[in-house]
Amino acid sequence: MSKTQNQVRQSSLAHVVNELCKSEHGMLSWLARGGRLLPSRDQVVEAVEALRSVLYPGYFGVSEMTEENMRFHVGATLDRVLAALQEQIKRGLCFVCNHDSGPECPDCLERAAVITKEFLDRLPKIQHVLATDVQAAYLGDPAATSTDETIFCYPGILAVTYYRLAHELCTLGVPLIPRIITEHAHSLTGIDIHPGASIGERFFIDHGTGVVIGETCIIGRNVRIYQGVTLGAKSFPLDEHGNPIKGIERHPIVEDEVVIYSGATILGRVTIGRRSVIGGNVWITRDIPPGSTVTTSLS
Amino acid sequence: MSKTQNQVRQSSLAHVVNELCKSEHGMLSWLARGGRLLPSRDQVVEAVEALRSVLYPGYFGVSEMTEENMRFHVGATLDRVLAALQEQIKRGLCFVCNHDSGPECPDCLERAAVITKEFLDRLPKIQHVLATDVQAAYLGDPAATSTDETIFCYPGILAVTYYRLAHELCTLGVPLIPRIITEHAHSLTGIDIHPGASIGERFFIDHGTGVVIGETCIIGRNVRIYQGVTLGAKSFPLDEHGNPIKGIERHPIVEDEVVIYSGATILGRVTIGRRSVIGGNVWITRDIPPGSTVTTSLS
Amino acid sequence: MSKTQNQVRQSSLAHVVNELCKSEHGMLSWLARGGRLLPSRDQVVEAVEALRSVLYPGYFGVSEMTEENMRFHVGATLDRVLAALQEQIKRGLCFVCNHDSGPECPDCLERAAVITKEFLDRLPKIQHVLATDVQAAYLGDPAATSTDETIFCYPGILAVTYYRLAHELCTLGVPLIPRIITEHAHSLTGIDIHPGASIGERFFIDHGTGVVIGETCIIGRNVRIYQGVTLGAKSFPLDEHGNPIKGIERHPIVEDEVVIYSGATILGRVTIGRRSVIGGNVWITRDIPPGSTVTTSLS
Amino acid sequence: MSKTQNQVRQSSLAHVVNELCKSEHGMLSWLARGGRLLPSRDQVVEAVEALRSVLYPGYFGVSEMTEENMRFHVGATLDRVLAALQEQIKRGLCFVCNHDSGPECPDCLERAAVITKEFLDRLPKIQHVLATDVQAAYLGDPAATSTDETIFCYPGILAVTYYRLAHELCTLGVPLIPRIITEHAHSLTGIDIHPGASIGERFFIDHGTGVVIGETCIIGRNVRIYQGVTLGAKSFPLDEHGNPIKGIERHPIVEDEVVIYSGATILGRVTIGRRSVIGGNVWITRDIPPGSTVTTSLS
Amino acid sequence: MSKTQNQVRQSSLAHVVNELCKSEHGMLSWLARGGRLLPSRDQVVEAVEALRSVLYPGYFGVSEMTEENMRFHVGATLDRVLAALQEQIKRGLCFVCNHDSGPECPDCLERAAVITKEFLDRLPKIQHVLATDVQAAYLGDPAATSTDETIFCYPGILAVTYYRLAHELCTLGVPLIPRIITEHAHSLTGIDIHPGASIGERFFIDHGTGVVIGETCIIGRNVRIYQGVTLGAKSFPLDEHGNPIKGIERHPIVEDEVVIYSGATILGRVTIGRRSVIGGNVWITRDIPPGSTVTTSLS
Amino acid sequence: MSKTQNQVRQSSLAHVVNELCKSEHGMLSWLARGGRLLPSRDQVVEAVEALRSVLYPGYFGVSEMTEENMRFHVGATLDRVLAALQEQIKRGLCFVCNHDSGPECPDCLERAAVITKEFLDRLPKIQHVLATDVQAAYLGDPAATSTDETIFCYPGILAVTYYRLAHELCTLGVPLIPRIITEHAHSLTGIDIHPGASIGERFFIDHGTGVVIGETCIIGRNVRIYQGVTLGAKSFPLDEHGNPIKGIERHPIVEDEVVIYSGATILGRVTIGRRSVIGGNVWITRDIPPGSTVTTSLS
Hints:
With 299 residues, chain A is of the alpha/beta class. In chain A, 43% of the residues lie in helices and 11% in strands. The first copy, chain A, is built from eight helices and 14 strands. Chain A has helices at 5-10, 13-20, 41-55, 70-96, 106-140, 147-153, 155-171, 177-189; strands at residues 192-193, 198-199, 204-206, 212-213, 218-219, 224-226, 230-232, 253-254, 259-260, 265-267, 271-272, 277-278, 283-284, 293-294. In chain A, strands 1-4-7-10-13 form a five-stranded parallel beta sheet. Chain A has a five-stranded parallel beta sheet with strand order 3-6-9-12-14. A four-stranded parallel beta sheet of chain A has the order 2-5-8-11, with no helix packed on it. The longest helix of chain A has 35 residues, at 106-140. The N and C termini of chain A lie far apart (75 Å). The C-E interface holds C 4, 6-7, 10-11, 13-14, 17, 64, 66-69, 72 and E 4, 6-7, 10-11, 13-14, 17, 64, 66-69, 72.
């Protein structure tokens, strides 16, 4: 019997597999880590979605939530999610560690346990801040009919929730995982908030698609921004090898109670003063004094 | 034997669970509804995806569709989806009802059944309008090679399909559910159409990411818009308590056969007259007479 | 016993099913293909996600990847994915073929097998180019801490990976499937690259939401672009029936080492000369000479 | 184009569907119940498997069980399972009720709620009896290395666990559901215990395949039986229409501390006296006095 | 960094894989079939479970079955299941065919299509016979409270349903698949009926564990048998090479209205005459005249 | 609003949870292990099913197996399954270990790695023996049409496959896991082989339901047994506390080329001599010399 077309195709299979598994072109840099496991994006995403269900008990996950059974469901979910998260935090730590303590790396495991415990302890505080964000969303959009609606439907609430969780992990020194979390929110909402940014309470992003908030941004309280707003870097200095210098403060400071309308672009380490209103499509690369209203000549 | 690190972590568990389940910070407002179930986002999304498969029979879901088996598959899917949708509509109605008829709320159940029946009866009409949208997509994009391609791939078609379903539920008085549907489309496509907006047939959005169409927009027939277009509100009046007044007509009217290019922003209750062409990145806050062409000075 | 509300609803079911299955309004154009199967979007998406896991071995999918087991996992995944992809390629070919060889269409099956074999052979080359894109992402963003982070998290890497796979299928003459692939990336990232576009190595898109790259674009090597950039068509000629003429070169040429900042819009068959820098929100519809810096008067 | 073979097949489809949906041959007797839902075997099975995980906390389901998190997991699982079980109990009640209160049948719903509450209250008692069964299994089999092993692996423990749950529902007056539960255990273990049988504590079935314990059996404490043992009815009287008369006491009484070896068959309302030993393959249809040893002449 | 224990283990991996994939010890006899696909046990099982749901509409699968939606669900399920079954029948045919028509084997494909069509046409007849079996189960067991209970719970009904489907495929000349079906029933119920056996209507097996009914059995109408009954072969002749001669009639004939009690063993091509009663644990290797009652001396 | 019936039920929830989590009745003996994880039955079952697919490449799992892709699929599956199995072996070891080395127990982890490596190395030998069992099944049953059919369908092959894997783990000193494996086979087939038994090559069990083979059985080569056969213990001595003494040789020795027909029971440490034939339903508690034929007087 002659060979099938599948069999013909498979004549190339072994060769192509060998090519794809060659380390010379740099796709296998993880091999240098000697068997330490890489984080799993799917596990991180599952964990953070479960965390959302305990921060907003009754809105996601179990549908028959009551005052009586709430603690059981929140406790069981939280216990499960923390075990999964601790494993991912450990992998994140091992991703950058220099420990010479073998592939299982007990040092990172122990640090992951400490961080996870601390993260758990901070969850009530995160929930309190999110409650102010929900309130801000309800007040900031005439189309919102209740705070529940904003929790259920508003992409801005989702993005800020994921950001606040990721930011807390960031301040606890967890590498990589926070960025995976915020990029998942970016994929779902089109809102791209770097977990390193600092954002005060009562923060509201409406519609949100195309919003970019850079790593070293500092945003005050009660700020409202709309779709397409960029809080970015103007340019970045290179080192002697032509590589970008990492970690320089290069994004805007937005003070309390500022409103930034859709499509506005603010670049560089500039300050938008308290209570300012930045109009749509405006392009700003300089400080704006408190109480200003900035609009384009076209509006 | 000493305690594991998991056990150490769990020493905080009970305390944090108690904190997260406190109602004082307003995250548990649903408790006031006395055991009535909240809508399930996952159920709504599953229902609307199944509805898409019956509106475009053969394109999604069952792959071996023929003239002979089509009615069986469409009928079985539709029956299943309507049972699920009715339950969600009932939860949506209970979300805002003031009935004092106990936690099962037979009043809302009955109204949900009537609405679901009416929604079912309107599906053929929705399909007819969507057929005109598909035709518009094919004619509106030189890269489209067939109407089938637009059904399979075009985010604009997906967003408009979900919008038309959500809008019909909106006009039938269903709370919350329509918004969950359009926000799901927003997440998939970056196109944010409020279900309250009114949009005529032969509507085409190309590329689409960043499009925002507000709650009180009125869009005529044969309109074409591109990515990044905002049809938004200019500002919104507050009541005596500083809260936004809900329900005011505050978004644009776009008349028949208008084209709006990428990045254009049109704000407030202004009218873009019939057959006008709005250029890219233009910022408009006033009426535009029929037949106008508006471009920025930069193009 | 009286009828339930479900039964009342179902009284309309048969009628609505008949309406939805009528072919007159053009929703059933696939019926003309005489039983040939349509592509399955889910199958294509699953295949391309598996391909990503073999192009970046160890980052996605199997988590305990080592030098020893890598070839087994890559080989098993590749074998499985190619069988699935060949079936979808065959359906894509049948989607447009005029073969009179019966519903199973052995001609398309054979061509699909040849294309799949050729596509397999090209995967190492695709991987090599992607390795340059990953390097470009790491160098192009001061916030990137390692190349691994860009592979894990950066939407730009995901969009370019899917584009390069889709583009290769495009050059092999596969209809429809490439577009399904890039639209899936569009949904996940907000980055809309037409598979027909031609893009050189070391390509980096940062943040990315709202980027549109049209069908006939030609982009050189080492180009970097930011969120909200449109490389689009200015307008398109209609034929004598008022339909757009398909396949005309109508999108920009971007030469090597160009940088285009966020929100810039470049329309029509214009050339952006080598090493030029295009500022944010700029609107361009004409050629730009090499080495230019273009900014708006507002910045 | 000619029809595919699938299409030829489908020419019979509509006709066969009509035949299968005819009610005349008695397959659609549920139609007489006017829309009341039938129990779902899958839901019942899922519920009873979850119940097993709370009766033996830590052995099935969640693997990282500790003293700290146990209550959360047991509580969350129990809450979920009871909601599902109540729905199935309600359907079981409606299966036989004559209420004229419409298709939703609030009477059965209320009774289901009362029964579910009572069943919940009895779970600790069921757990206590099961603990004696586990102890009996460990002591009764020289191959058992720990009580944990009997919980993990012994089909006898599984069958008795499901029986004790089903029996409790039986005594609470739930129709149909108890039988679904014991038949699921029968499928998994080959042990067929009717939920109506009465069985004392410290009961152990070793190996178990082929064991049959009939509806009206009464089994004392500390009884041990082996594979292939039948405790059945000898014959059953018919009524005037030739139908079997339901509910007559027709199965054996087995007193405390009896052992019955493999393949023994005991039929009819006979009594096996306390501390008797019944040898393998013995056939018994008469009373056996206490302390007897019965063997076949062949052994 | 030193190697992990996983890496040490993997040092054997390639060697063991090579050993396992050697064809010399006869585990790879399918290689001789030149790329033709083997049947998939999972697909067959899924198909036959779906068939059960259409033969007993409303009892398994869709729970909200009504007179109005029944035809849609039955039709959709049947269409789906037949497509899957046809593929498996084709693989079964190719399993034994000698066609030299290449690996896709269009001859077997065409025959599979004809068989599937014929099998579909016979389903109503199968349903009619099953309705008599259900009636027999209800009348044959005093513990049965309704015919619905026997459909839901009785392993005998499940085993006979799967047997009747498998037997019909058997008479249509399908290899392998019928045996996969009856062995699945064997696994679920402990009842092992060879698909080649011939069984009349109104057949009832009670409890059933351990029942064996051989390939060439002929069973009349209205027969009732209990657990542990064997209808087997006495011995089988060998050919000149010492291999068993296949296909000889070697199992019992059981005439109409016979009852066989638990544990009875009947071996060889003997005839149990009409209306006979065979007692428990009896061992029979000779003809029994009509109307006999056979019991062991022990009972 | 009044409370729902769910809420009433939940008033008992907290109390019942507390009762179920009390350790005094002995259900929580694992608590004494200080946080060490119990084995997961589901994980063990999944692993052993995957092992079956690599021992019989092409029959289970991947359906498009060819000579070219076989090694990739076998290698990838084997790598995955061994990682999972090693974890379960480690838990099994910790189940009985007395190490004082903390809850992670590196001693057991290391031993699990060594055992898993050794088990891997033995797989080819296991496959060779299974090939003789398959051959024996084909030759031993006139109804078998090919060796492939026995691999696909015969419960005897499944039970022996799982037994041989479990037995190898048993001889490597793994606690608990082997028993979980054979009890899974018991559930699927009704064949209960203790993993401690020793069984020679070319072993065939036909039909199999109800077969029991005890812990200390020794079975020679080319033995064939039928359904309902028990190779059990006659009785077992108790120690001074009335507990059974574990580990005594108490089951039969069956020499080469013995055949044991259905329902036969052989008890105690007796020897069935080479080439003997034991008839159906025979009861044996003494040595049988080689070449004997034993039948009941009833046959």
